Structure prediction request, 423 residues.
Amino acid sequence: MILGITQPKKQHHHTHSMSRSYIFSSESVGEGHPDKVCDTISDAILDACLAQDPMSRVACETYAKSNIVVVGGEITTKAKFDYNDIIRKAIREIGYHNTDDVFHADTVFINNIITAQSPDIAQGVDAKKATGKKTAEQGAGDQGLMFGYACNETPELMPAPIMYAHRLGRELTRLRKSGAAKWLRPDAKSQVSVEYVDGKPTRIVNVVISTQHAEGISHKEIEKFCIEKVIKKVLPAKMLTKQTEFLINPTGRFVIGGPQGDTGLTGRKIIVDTYGGMGRHGGGAFSGKDPTKVDRSAAYMGRYVAKNVVAAGLAARCEVQFAYAIGYPDPVSIHIDTFGTATVPEEAIQTAVKKTFGFKPAEIISQLKLRRPIYSKTTNYGHFGKNHADITWEKTDKAAVLKKAALAAAGLKNGAKKSSKRR
Prediction:
């Protein structure tokens, strides 16, 4: 059905006379960016809850401005800890402990307005019967739609622009925390624009880095440092050309940063957290939410599925969409799009996916082992594309099973001959 529409696209890949090129840009932000400060605090509180009580229900929102942090939200947990202690520690680890900071780990005022989860929401999520509730199973913690995405542009099976932007941010932070550049301060942003020819990333057109810095360092020094020690160290040399433009601290000065310069809020960097604008987004944020919240867990599941589809060689690009109803366990819809890159019919992939994975919230939680204090590892430089044992949704352990199921589904539908030809 979908394959019929996308057929012409395939043919044009083989006609060399017409190569289509476009530029796609993605951004990343450093740990000291005000919104990320808030995400970091929210996830630190979530982890503190899960470390003691894996069944904690957490929805923690943080607001930061000047020397004030406000935490609010709904938390139901048996865990006992000092909230202020967790918050100050998170701010200190980010690096806000310099004497010239208005926003400082030791002196920030903390306002805590956290309450328990609403009993009306709780009864929808709880794995037990309730009046008017359709099922006694654990339901989704909210309605909504979530997307997962993967493509074969980078070893991480992530889009190139966002991976490159994250690399820059990660390296800046590494250099700052190692003391290699004493003038570096926590707030930073990066952006990379990549030219695509016939759907493949070919070169980096420009790179933007804005980093907060201490008083008294020249713009020239910052520029040289960012180009030599950051950009040229972490971006693929073959993607950088003589024409690549570097824009470093383009305003000329960035001394006032972090929550002093700009207000921070949890959940405002959802594109940085996901695919840099490549692939669609359902709008739900991640940080501060326990895994009964499908905004987070189903988006992780979508990534797991899409990555395994691409790893199995079933498609070069894959996007998965789920939608849920609050209190109801099964997704109300599952949709897979391979943008005309599928090697077997898309219906066969969809059949295989439904056979290989479970999409009820309780199944997602157990498949990905989400009731652990692992969320602080996800907060910065994207929730996807990381190689870490605790980040289960990046594993490609289902690729072989999925491929087998997809080939079987294709064979049953179209006769084995046809499916082997399409491979």
Observations:
- The chain is about 35% helix and 20% strand.
- Residues 1-16, 413-423 have pLDDT under 50 and may be disordered.
- Residues 34-52 form the longest helix (19 residues).
